[in-house]
Amino acid sequence: MEAVCFKLSGKTAFFKKPEVNSYVYFTYGNIHKVALLGIFGAILGYGGHTQKFNQTGRSKQLKEGFPEFYEKLKKIHMSIIPGAEKGFIRKKIQVFNNSVGYASGEQGGNLIVKEQWLEEPSWDVYVLLDCEEAIKLCDALQEKKCVYIPYLGKNDHFADISNVCVKKADEVKCGKGKVASLFPREKGVLQTSSDFWEDEEMTFKYEEELPEQLDGWTNNYILQSFIYTDAVVSWENQKVYCIDQKNIMFY
Q: What is the DSSP pairing of strand 232-234 with strand 176-178?
């Protein structure tokens, strides 16, 4: 098996949490699968939420369906390694004016926006070349071609894609070891030092609920708890491959 690998980075990023929409807009602490599929869709020229709305129009009957990018790419297996130490990317509140006129009903039409941005984010991204869409994406990345400009969450944050290469991925058979990537909590069990080697104690653990899927009826995020740690992990029936002497769990 092979996987295409690349570095995804930018000056800033903003992956909006939909739960809070007043006073301050908050961001997820790392890029998530749905956002990555959106970037892949932009590279390959697939339609997004706006195109779906334009095609279907307003309908009184609720129908199940996804944006084109998600429908075509949802079966891709990927993995993410945060570039920040211990997985924690610096955040900062940014304050700016939105004065397009229709942004606010206040006098003057000026809206003061407060957003929490990730600063200097970077990730190593791995995509398993096990389906046609993954191979198409690999070709586009290697040829440095894209249909739409990829962003890190919104068009204020340009995405930089570098160090594209294809690497051999050997399936890990043992079912235990350190996992170098983020992985869904339900797919791995952290081992204590008494369970494994005494000199392999955990020194950090990053955990956050991140979007992993879209709901077919509402297109809202379906969240999954993800972990990034240096602890020993045991897993069963999961896609774990060794790439550059690192155990990478795909999901």
A: antiparallel
Q: Is 229 exposed, middle or buried (0-12, 13-18, 19+ CB in 10 A)?
A: buried
* 190-238 residue pLDDT tens: 876 555 555 567 889 999 999 999 998 888 999 999 999 999 999 888 8
Q: What's the CA gap between 90 and 13, in Å, rounded? A: 11
Instruction: Please name the residues in contact with 19: beta carbons below 8 A apart, sequence gap of 6 or more.
Output: none
User: How large is the C-alpha radius of gyration of the chain?
Assistant: 20
**Are β-strands 111-119 and 91-98 bridged in parallel, bridged antiparallel, or unpaired?**
antiparallel
Torsion angle of C-alpha atoms 52, 121, 233, 222, degrees rounded to 10: -20
At 47-71, the pLDDT tens digits run 887 766 555 555 445 567 889 999 9
DSSP bridge partners of 125: 6, 80
- The token pair that represents 243 in the structure block: 């790439």
| Angle subtended by helix axes 33-44 and 132-142, to nearest 10 | 70
Element (H, E) at 44: helix 33-44
Interatomic CA distance for residues 249 and 4, integer angstroms: 14
Structure tokens at 222: 């379906």
φ, ψ of residue 98 to 5 degrees: the values are: -110, 105
Residue 238 makes CB contacts below 8 A (sequence gap 6+) with: 187, 188, 249
User: CA geometry: angle at 206 spanning 202 and 207, to 5°?
Assistant: 120
